[in-house]
Write a structure and sequence with these properties.
Structural class: alpha+beta
Number of strands: 22
Largest sheet: 8 strands, mixed
Distance between the termini: 162 Å
Order of helices and strands: HHHEEEEHEEEEEHEEEEEEEEHHEHEEEE
Shape: rod-shaped
Strand order of the largest sheet: 12-16-10-22-20-18-17-21
């Protein structure tokens, strides 16, 4: 009896220990669940999942307690003498341990699942943020493109409607001033400054002159003009070793702009433009410049200036030449930008051949320009003229064969598009041929050649051109009484050259001598 009692007490103690162990396990599980719940409190889904898990575990624990109590009651009532019952009771704690371990495993799995779910949600959130930022970036890029396109369209619209835009033409009016000389307004260039506006200037060489251009054109015509100048320079025949062939390239590519073009050239010398100022005056453009032509070259040269503008095609363009201080002084003194003292008509002599002997009066109508005369000229010459050309000065009674004078030129003679290029060594033969065409007799031609041949032969080459009748008359008007039937005036202009230049051959019309004939010849050097 005492032995059975001991065995029953042992079982009670054993069951109590198992129960205590189970309670401790439950407490530990609850502690771990609460800890997991606190660590995952930032996630709403984990927060709601944790209480549900705790309720399930709590329910299981309650069931386990009830079973333990029931089992304890049965154990105290039964007679625990049987070995099978003892074996059964001993296996129950092992099952409880397994059950507790399973609960812990489920708790750990739940925790891992919760953590994985939280990671997935965080990953989704990060991806969402990245996608959001990417969308914002695309949206910003789209806005920038839209803004650039809008700006481009606006610029195109403004450029295509020139009347709504204003040209940015900075003034350089301080570089020149107006000067009134005998009622005529001239412009005096005060310094060497050039216009500071937007423009492009090309200088080129050419063996033939190009068309003069001064107008506002569209983009296509701008290209056509440049191409035309280039073809002129390229097609020069024959191209000489002294000529650079220049192809002009457009400096601007805005097809919506118009362009003010200024172009000029000389086929035998320098031709350059110094652009001083450009300004708007009502509906026209006024260009102030200093166009300079000087020197002699094998071919020639020119300039082409392009100025972008919003003024419409066909706008009126006015050019104003600004003069240097020296030129202004010459205008004041001589009525010309050139000093006539620098250019002299040398040895014009006059022959008179009436059909019968008669008294003849000869007048030079610009006598202020005379530098030397023989016989001495005073208002007029009065002579008795014979058919063979002999003369008698009625003032002195001296026998003469001609009347001689030299004068300052009132016309500035320059190299023209036409003329002749003659080697110095060929000058005599050339003059014999051309003077005969112009109507001079052998005696007159001999006197001409004897005077000018030493000068022409001293040059390697000579540019020679015979002035037109109206040029000679403007330079020194001549008046002869008794109404001559034929008046032949020859004025040779020439320029010594170191190399040949390209010029068109001057066409000379043959002159015939009939009735009372007056002949004059002379020459002037081109400076």
């Amino acid at each position: 009896m005492n032995e059975n009692t001991k065995k029953g007490s042992f079982k009670v103690i054993l069951i109590s220990i198992v129960a205590v162990f189970l309670v401790a396990a439950v407490i530990i599980s609850i502690f771990l669940l609460n800890k997991n719940k606190n660590s995952d409190s930032g996630n709403d889904e984990n927060s709601t999942a944790a209480p549900q898990i705790s309720q399930e575990e709590s329910s299981e624990r309650e069931i386990s307690r009830d079973e333990s109590k029931e089992e304890s009651k049965q154990t105290s009532k039964e007679d625990s003498g049987s070995g099978e019952e003892s074996s059964k009771e001993e296996t129950e704690p092992e099952d409880s341990k397994a059950e507790s371990s399973s609960e812990e495993s489920r708790t750990e799995n739940s925790r891992q699942e919760s953590s994985a779910e939280s990671s997935r949600e965080e990953s989704k959130t990060d991806n969402s943020r990245e996608e959001s930022r990417s969308e914002e970036s695309k949206s910003e890029s789209s806005r920038e493109e839209s803004k650039a396109e809008s700006s481009k369209e606006e610029s195109k619209k403004e450029s295509s409607d020139p009347e709504n835009r204003e040209d940015d033409f900075p003034s350089n009016s301080g570089a020149y001033e107006q000067v009134s000389i005998e009622g005529t307004v001239y412009y005096h260039r005060l310094d060497d400054s050039l216009w500071g506006g937007n423009y492009h200037q090309d200088n080129f060489e050419t063996s033939y002159g190009t068309d003069t251009v001064m107008k506002v054109v569209g983009y296509d015509e701008y290209l056509e003009i440049l191409d035309g100048i280039s073809k002129t320079t390229e097609n020069s025949e024959p191209p000489t070793e002294y000529m650079d062939i220049t192809r002009l390239k457009p400096a601007y590519n805005d097809e919506n702009m118009n362009y003010l073009l200024l172009s000029q050239s000389s086929d035998h010398g320098w031709c350059n433009m110094y652009l001083i100022d450009v300004e708007k005056q009502d509906d026209k453009l006024v260009v102030y410049g200093y166009e300079n032509t000087y020197g002699v070259m094998a071919s020639g040269s020119g300039y082409c200036i392009a100025i972008p503008t919003y003024m419409p095609v066909g706008t009126e363009v006015e050019y104003v030449q600004c003069h240097t201080s020296e030129e202004i002084e010459n205008i004041k003194k001589f009525g010309s930008i050139y000093d006539p003292n620098q250019e002299i008509a040398y040895k014009p002599i006059i022959y008179l051949y009436p059909t019968e002997e008669k008294n003849v009066t000869v007048k030079l109508l610009k006598d202020d320009n005379l530098t030397c005369t023989y016989p001495k000229y005073k208002d007029e010459w009065n002579v008795t003229a014979k058919p063979n050309g002999d003369l008698v000065d009625l003032k002195t009674g001296r026998n003469l064969y001609s009347l001689y004078y030299e004068c300052k030129n009132s016309v500035r003679f320059t190299i023209q598009k036409d003329g002749f290029v003659v080697k110095g060594e060929d000058a005599a033969q050339f003059l014999e041929e051309k003077l005969a065409v112009l109507g001079l007799s052998d005696r007159e031609a001999e006197e001409f050649i004897v005077y000018w041949l030493p000068i022409l032969e001293a040059n390697k080459y000579n540019y020679i051109r015979f002035a037109e009748a109206d040029e000679i008359e403007e330079n020194m008007p001549l008046e002869v009484s008794s109404d001559p039937d034929s008046v032949i005036r020859v004025l040779m202009t020439f320029k010594g050259l170191d190399f040949p230049i390209n010029v068109e051959e001057q066409k000379l019309a043959p002159v015939s001598r009939t009735g009372f004939t007056v002949v004059e010849w002379g020459g002037t050097e081109i400076r």
